Amino acid sequence: MFFIMGITDGNKELKYDGGGMNICKSCGAYTRYIVYMTYMCLSLFFIPTIKWGKKYYVRTSCCGSVYELNEEKGKMIARGENVNITDSDLTPVSEKKRHKICRICGYETNEDFEYCPKCGGKF
Fold first, then answer.
1. 56 burial via Cβ count (<10 Å: 0-12, 13-18, 19+)
2. Contact assessment for residue 55 and residue 38, using Cβ atoms and an 8 Å cutoff
3. What is this structure's pTM?
4. For residue range 78-106, what is the model confidence (pLDDT) as tens digits?
5. Contact (Cβ atoms closer than 8 angstroms) between residue 32 and residue 17
6. Cβ proximity of 37 and 74 under 8 Å
7. How far apart are CA 79 and CA 82, in angstroms?
8. Which residues pair with 36 in a beta bridge?
9. Residues of the chain with pLDDT under 70
10. Do 100 and 61 touch, CB atoms closer than 8 A?
């Protein structure tokens, strides 16, 4: 007798409405939170049987910054409960700042300028 089994990692996007738009902690733009779960999985005969190491993350739709979500809130969202995510529930994993490039002179900045400090053109 032989067994076909394997261990893989996976991720699953969770359904989260979030009650509208939020403000991104990284770039300050209005954003929508995309919640997903990562896990390790043991498969027997190509059928997932055991999942462990579940972690919950939030990715922003504006700049793509990723935050680890509080485990309790993640479990509540996975169960389909209506949850409001606050800034205290998020731990930064990879933050991205909004990067601006001037169309006239090519000057690059992460600052929140409306006009280019080098040539005066509008961003």
1. buried
2. yes
3. 0.71
4. 999 988 998 899 999 886 665 677 888 88
5. no
6. yes
7. 9
8. 13, 57
9. 1, 19, 95-99
10. no
